[in-house]
């Protein structure tokens, strides 16, 4: 046998080595760190028994089923292989891809078990098409043909089925990105490119003047309405951008860019993204929406234009990490503290966030150097979005969201799942420098909008949103069910002020005989709330509820009948009643102030309002004063 010359041997050796991309920036290192943790947990759940019909599938430990959507891990596994050259990731990607092909329906779609929904075919196909260029050389010719046939069949199914009349709006731009990726990596047929463009522009048509995308909630006359910021940031905007980048549609990209310039203001200094006010906030986790993918890919796509987007991605990643335990992503920051009441979260947010981080690593523009501040890091601004009646204020030591979002499921098409998001001019998340979250928001009444994603709750849970409320023989009334509130924000003075006017209403949005006016003042070390109640037809016993977020080390202590001290690890806050005939109560039913979404616990402060013996008005004026 002839020997190989040393030069030729070296050339053959170098050409056979898998070229590994490098982790050149902090962003890539941080994405990789969390992606590694999530993919390891997915590997542990993968079926390794080659004799089992579900070989390659990924088992959900909570519900004991092989989710078809979990096969989206094909792409995170592939990216991990690219960065590590470890064959276990390559083999896992191929095995789960083959398992997914075996689950495909004859007409090309995949059913999202345990339901019959097929729109998630877009997500599965996107991950297969993105992974294919790397995996192709490790597949024999027959396997390559099998993969390409499967992807084309899924693509043709989406060409026929996907449109805003078929699915919630986030599926539409996601499918636009999927069609573009399929066209780029697998099948150059014009039909896929044409469908991608059609879906992208159908998405843009659903954008309002503030660049919010409508179509996430219920249908009226066959048309979906409702904005959900979580889905917009975690799905729709990056799908639209991915389509635009692949196809060169600069005009479509500009719409995504303008929207991102608006929604960046909902990213808090601690990385929380406030989509608590959206129509699908029953899935709101703080780090995003539970069954959506994530915002890191969106921010990274534009990080070269504004490095603050990379800062937003990393801050939000830190918040996400607070919800991870042993490689599994929970419903929110503190959900593991009450996991005995909710059960272990299923795999959905784990593989969804993994695919998001994988896409961020591969498609993002990562910046080196010191991080650039977020808008939320710099005080003294207010943004009001009239199309949704939502404002965000960053003033002095405070940041907060005020929502009078008036979406209404007129026909109860959603069966109640679009009813209980907070509104009525409530201050939702309130963040204080050197303290963290002071207050937060949740559903007003717990409703399992999608049963497998939302745990059954047998224990009592009480809403976490600050509110005005009363109970009577006619039911429960609160500003959180007011859909017609008027709101105005003024940032011209030394304090940013806001006024909200509405009626306390029940969950059918019927008013109950008491009107209210909130006057907020925000700035420096003080956040004030003045409430004027007008008892025009009834005089019920009204409660003003202020649930305080139980951050690490937080304690709530009543000082006297008009003062409460909230002790934090770095900073204390006083709640001081300045005006009003009220009785302050601390800690009543405190054990019930927890919610699986956003996975937080609170401790209640209640101002019990004495109804007027004469006249028809009561004024309650109190302040949060940071010490």
Give the topology.
Elements: H1 6-16, H2 26-44, H3 74-84, H4 87-103, H5 121-135, H6 141-161, H7 171-185, H8 190-205, E1 219-220, E2 223-224, H9 229-247, H10 250-263, H11 296-301, H12 308-321, E3 324-325, E4 328-329, H13 339-342, H14 348-363, E5 381-385, E6 390-395, E7 398-403, E8 426-432, E9 436-439, E10 467-472, E11 475-478, E12 486-490, E13 496-505, E14 511-523, E15 526-534, E16 542-549, E17 555-560, E18 563-567, E19 572-579, E20 582-586, E21 594-595, E22 600-609, E23 617-626
Antiparallel strand pairs: 1-2, 3-4, 5-6, 6-7, 7-8, 8-9, 10-11, 10-16, 12-13, 13-14, 14-15, 15-23, 16-22, 17-18, 18-19, 19-23, 20-22, 21-22
Keyword list:
22% strand; 627 residues; disordered N terminus; Beta-galactosidase, Chain A, domain 5; Glycosyltransferase; elongated; 23 strands; 14 helices; eight-stranded antiparallel β-sheet
CATH topology of one domain: Beta-galactosidase, Chain A, domain 5
Q: What is the CATH architecture assignment of one domain?
A: Distorted Sandwich
Strand arrangement across the biggest beta sheet = 12-13-14-15-23-19-18-17
How far is the N terminus from the C terminus? 84 Å
Percent strand: 15-25%
- Label the overall shape: elongated
Report on the biggest sheet.
Answer: 8 strands, antiparallel
Fraction of residues in helix: 25-40%
Structural class: alpha+beta
Strand tally: 23
Regions with little confidence, pLDDT below 50 for 5+ residues: 1-18
CATH class of one domain: Mainly Beta
């Amino acid at each position: 046998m002839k020997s190989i010359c040393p030069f030729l041997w070296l050339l053959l050796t170098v050409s056979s080595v898998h070229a590994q991309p490098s982790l050149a920036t902090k962003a890539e290192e941080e994405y990789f760190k969390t992606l590694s943790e999530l993919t390891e947990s997915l590997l542990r759940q993968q079926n390794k028994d080659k004799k089992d019909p579900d070989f390659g599938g990924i088992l959900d430990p909570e519900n004991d089923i092989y989710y078809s959507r979990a096969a989206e891990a094909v792409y995170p596994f592939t990216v991990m292989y690219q960065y590590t050259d470890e064959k276990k990731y390559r083999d896992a990607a191929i095995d789960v891809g083959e398992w997914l092909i075996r689950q495909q329906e004859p007409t090309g779609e995949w059913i999202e078990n345990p339901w019959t929904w097929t729109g998630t075919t877009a997500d599965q196909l996107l991950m297969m098409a993105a992974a294919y260029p790397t995996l192709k050389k490790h597949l024999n010719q027959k396997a390559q043909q099998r993969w390409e046939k499967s992807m084309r069949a899924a693509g043709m199914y989406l060409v026929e089925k996907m449109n805003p009349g078929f699915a919630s709006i986030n599926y539409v731009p996601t499918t636009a990105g999927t069609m573009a990726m399929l066209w780029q990596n697998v099948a150059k047929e014009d039909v896929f490119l044409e469908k991608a463009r059609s879906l992208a522009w159908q998405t843009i048509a659903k954008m309002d003047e503030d660049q919010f995308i409508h179509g996430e909630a219920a249908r009226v006359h066959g048309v979906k309405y409702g904005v959900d910021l979580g889905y917009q940031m975690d799905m729709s905007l990056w799908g639209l951008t991915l389509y635009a980048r692949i196809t060169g549609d600069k005009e479509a990209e500009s719409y995504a860019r303008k929207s991102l310039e608006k929604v960046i203001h909902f990213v808090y200094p601690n990385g929380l993204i406030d989509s608590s006010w959206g129509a699908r906030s029953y899935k709101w986790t703080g780090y995003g929406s539970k069954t959506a993918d994530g915002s890191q890919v969106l921010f990274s796509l534009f990080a070269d234009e504004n490095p603050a987007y990379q800062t937003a991605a990393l801050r939000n990643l830190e918040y996400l990490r607070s919800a991870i335990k042993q490689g599994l992503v929970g419903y929110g920051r503190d959900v593991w503290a009450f996991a005995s009441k909710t059960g272990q979260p299923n795999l959905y947010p784990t593989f969804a966030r993994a695919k998001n981080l994988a896409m961020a690593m591969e498609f993002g523009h990562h910046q080196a150097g010191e991080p650039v501040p977020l808008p939320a890091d710099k005080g003294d601004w207010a943004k009001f979005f009239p199309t949704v009646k939502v404002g965000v204020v960053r003033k002095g030591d405070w940041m907060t969201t005020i929502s009078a979002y008036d979406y209404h499921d007129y026909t109860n098409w959603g069966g109640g799942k679009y009813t209980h998001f907070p509104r009525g001019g409530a201050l939702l998340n309130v963040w204080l420098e050197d303290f963290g979250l002071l207050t937060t928001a949740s559903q007003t009444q717990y409703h399992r909008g999608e049963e497998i994603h939302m745990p059954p709750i047998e224990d009592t849970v009480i809403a976490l949103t600050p509110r005005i409320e009363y109970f009577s023989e006619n039911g429960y009334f609160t500003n959180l069910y007011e859909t017609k509130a008027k709101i105005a924000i003024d940032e011209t003075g030394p304090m940013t002020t806001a006024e909200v006017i509405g009626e306390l209403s029940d969950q059918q949005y019927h008013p109950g005989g008491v009107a209210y006016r909130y006057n907020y003042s925000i700035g420096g070390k003080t956040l004030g709330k003045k409430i004027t109640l007008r008892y025009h037809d009834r005089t019920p016993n009204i409660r003003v509820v202020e649930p305080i977020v139980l951050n690490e080390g937080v304690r709530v202590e009543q000082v006297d009948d008009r003062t409460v001290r909230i002790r934090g690890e770095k900073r204390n806050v006083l709640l001081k009643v300045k005006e009003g005939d009220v009785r302050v109560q601390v800690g009543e039913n405190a054990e019930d102030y927890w919610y699986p979404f956003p996975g937080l616990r609170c401790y209640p402060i209640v101002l019990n309002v004495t109804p007027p013996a004469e006249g028809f008005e009561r004024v309650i004026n109190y302040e949060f004063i940071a010490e």
